[in-house]
Specification:
With 684 residues, the protein is of the alpha/beta class. The chain is 29% helix and 17% strand. The strands form seven sheets. Strands 2-1-5-3-4 form a five-stranded mixed beta sheet, sandwiched between helices. β23 (633-636) and β24 form a beta hairpin. α4 (113-121) crosses α8 and α6 runs antiparallel to α8 (165-178). The longest helix has 20 residues, at 481-500. The chain is globular and about 100 Å long. The mean pLDDT is 93.
């Protein structure tokens, strides 16, 4: 006799043999569970499928509770969600592994580095480019210029050297372009909403790309003659050929983004008019003003802002500089300035930096290549005066420094050595100690004391509901391009949510992480990082030709094959992490002892079981027993020390390779099948 009841207002008809869980599933109502499979007997191990029934004092496990006529079941009450969250946190408190590789987690834009590297390894170059485009729209450009924080986190360096993740990204994009198969943006149907973006740099272009994908009409307004922002006007041609950037901007334009150049906010367009004419406005103005050092003589002719110097170069101008040039600063902009000065014919080029090389924020490769090109680094020195004659710079006095105690950034603070100075004769100084925003035309009420635009860090919303901000112009100020891109990616999501009337918030996902040491990789065969072919230092000094030629296909595949595949193989099918994010878990509430066990080969190394990922849902051994009719798996020990114990009889040699039901059923990626080429001798 049929039973009728409701779940979250949905009328459900159940049979006497049904549970709340099975009948709900048939009615299209999802109740989360980790330990249930309709092919096995009810087990009730995970405690995640709890529901609340009106009139019943305790929460019920939907996988075992039988429905009754007239039941009013609710799956999303505060009490239910709190109980599910607690159950998940308890499971996660002794669950270790890598949901995602450290390369992805260290990328501000959360690019799936592991995925595209492995797609390159398999020769799936178009797939690799598509993977990058899920995170941002500049694989060829960013692949050439990014300081690659992903590589800083790459565990391959515990074997020998990190994988060349950035160059692989550029390789894939160049390969797809050369094959005549460029990426095409897939857009949702038009929403009829219009968004104005002020600023056509990496942040503005990225936001436009995502907003077009969401189906909105987008117009970018930029003060420069061409789009690209700092990618075009702040990075020299030898590092980023502008033809490469043009191709990637064209892909965004071809998606329907309207590009309007030579338009200055506050001069050619009015801020309030933009608000009236569009449903939302994103401010992505960048940071175009070089900071000064506030030392005597900075107003002398010959003292030039570093970013202004590079901007002239981006306009195809050749700034006139003398034979002796000093660059103040230690970041990548300073490296671009000093290396550009070499190419413009300066005979002596100095980099003046108040700390040591170890504290320099610039990329190691940039420093090495600058030295190869003849740049002299004067570490532990700081300008205290610029001097000259008749208003023209002739030299600078440097204070000799030494390192003291660490400052707020963790770097040791430079302090003057009393009475120790040095004078050097120079014709030009390029100031590259940092950049600030130029917010002309922006409403004063949106600005911070630093001159940046104040916005919420999770919504990217300003104090005006319809105005958002992203990139170098926001709270923290200037950073690397991939950071601006990451902000724009999230801001676009928030703008889309705002336009759709949803919660305006970029949610920070939860991931399970684990620490590794070099000892974990002692058995990994050594394979040196591929060397990028390019111009010699002598060939580089007198021209702006691209310094790197790019990987060959064979090199790229060899380099990609070095990946250790740190992220979980089952991430996209993992119910544990999906539910963890759905219920905003905080496992640290139950922090304590965590097991650290060896992975266990289950059968002839056809299947490997990671007991530290296992949540003891019981599905693997129940599938083996109740569905496959075998007893190759069971439980060993009791209580907190219980583990799935593999039984490895001779029969498992062939049977497990063709069955794999335990692997298919595992909700956490603890069971993994091993490809035939990687299997070792049977351990029976």
């Amino acid at each position: 006799m049929a039973i009728t009841y409701t779940i979250d207002g949905v009328t459900v008809t159940a049979e006497p043999s049904d549970t709340i869980l099975t009948s709900a599933a048939r009615a299209g109502v999802e109740i989360p569970t980790l330990c249930f499979d309709k092919r096995t007997a009810i087990y009730g191990a995970c405690g995640v499928c709890l529901v609340e029934v009106e009139g019943v004092p305790k929460l019920l496990r939907a996988c075992s509770a039988k429905p009754q006529d007239g039941y009013v079941v609710r799956t999303n009450t505060e009490r239910v969600e709190r109980a599910r969250r607690t159950a998940l946190e308890l499971l996660l408190s002794d669950h270790t592994g890598d949901c995602r590789g450290p390369c992805k987690l260290n990328c501000p834009a959360m690019t799936d580095c592991q995925k595209y590297v492995n797609e390159i390894r398999e020769g799936k170059f178009k797939d690799a480019v598509n993977t990058v485009y899920e995170a941002f729209p500049f694989p060829a450009s960013i692949g050439r210029v990014c300081p690659h924080p992903c590589e800083d986190a790459c565990r391959r360096q515990m074997v020998e050297e990190p994988i060349s993740i950035a160059f692989l990204k550029a390789f894939a994009a160049d390969k797809v372009e050369a094959d005549g198969d460029p990426y095409v943006v897939q857009c949702e149907p038009s929403t009829g909403k219009h968004v104005a973006i002020v600023g056509g740099g990496p942040a503005g272009l990225t936001a436009a790309y995502f907003l077009r994908r969401y189906g909105h009409d987008v117009t970018i307004y930029d003060k420069q003659p061409k789009m690209g922002g700092m990618l075009r006007y702040g990075i020299p041609e030898y590092r980023l050929p502008k033809a490469v950037l043009d191709r990637e901007i064209a892909i965004i334009a071809n998606a329907g983004v309207k590009l309007v150049n030579n338009v200055q906010l506050g001069r050619d367009i009015d801020f309030e008019d933009l608000r009236k004419q569009h449903d939302a406005v994103l401010l992505a103005l960048g940071a175009w003003k070089s900071y000064n050092m506030r030392v005597p003589g900075e107003d002398l002719d010959g003292v030039i802002g570093g970013i202004e110097f590079l901007e002239h170069l981006g306009h195809d101008e050749r700034p006139a500089i003398g034979e002796r040039v000093a660059v103040c600063g230690g970041g990548n902009t300073a490296m671009d300035c000093c290396r550009t000065a070499v190419r413009l014919g300066a005979k002596e080029v100095y980099v003046v930096y108040r700390r040591t090389r170890a504290e320099m924020p610039a990329s190691e490769v940039e420093i090495d290549e600058a030295i190869e090109e003849g740049v002299t680094f004067k570490f532990l020195t700081n300008p205290i005066e610029f001097y000259g004659k008749d208003g023209r710079l002739e030299g600078m006095k440097l204070q000799i420094m030494e390192l003291g105690e660490p400052d707020a950034s963790g770097r040791r603070r430079p302090v003057p050595v009393e009475g120790a100075t040095e004078d050097i004769a120079i014709d030009n100084v390029l100031m590259a100690i940092g950049q600030g925003a130029d917010c002309e035309g922006v409403a004063e009420e949106l600005l911070t004391q630093r001159g940046t635009i104040a916005c919420d860090e999770l919504t990217f919303r300003t104090s005006m509901d319809d105005v958002f901000a992203a990139g170098d112009v926001t709270n923290r100020g200037a950073g690397i391009a991939i950071q601006a891109i990451a902000e724009a990616q999230k801001a676009a999501l928030c703008i889309n949510n705002y336009l759709e009337g949803d919660e305006v918030r970029a949610k920070i996902p939860y991931f399970v992480k684990q620490e590794k040491t070099p000892e974990d990789f002692e058995d990994e065969p050594k394979q040196n990082r591929e060397k990028m072919p390019g111009l010699t230092p002598e060939e580089r000094r007198n021209n702006f030709e691209p310094i790197y030629f790019g990987f060959s296909e064979e090199q790229a595949i060899r380099e990609a094959s070095r990946c250790l595949e740190c992220g979980c193989h089952d991430y996209f099918d993992c119910r544990l992490i999906r539910f963890a994010n759905a219920f905003d878990v905080d496992p640290e509430r139950f922090a304590g002892f965590m097991h650290d066990r060896e992975d266990v080969p289950v059968a002839s190394e056809v299947i490997v079981h990671d007991p530290d990922k296992c949540v003891l849902c019981g599905l693997c051994y129940r599938m083996c027993d109740q569905v496959a009719g075998k007893t190759f798996l069971g439980l060993y020990n009791r209580g907190f020390s219980t583990v799935v114990n593999p039984m490895v009889p001779e029969e498992a040699r062939t049977f497990c390779a063709s069955c794999l039901k335990c692997v298919e059923a595992c909700p956490t990626g603890a069971m993994k099948s091993v490809p035939a080429v990687e299997r070792k001798t049977c351990i029976v």
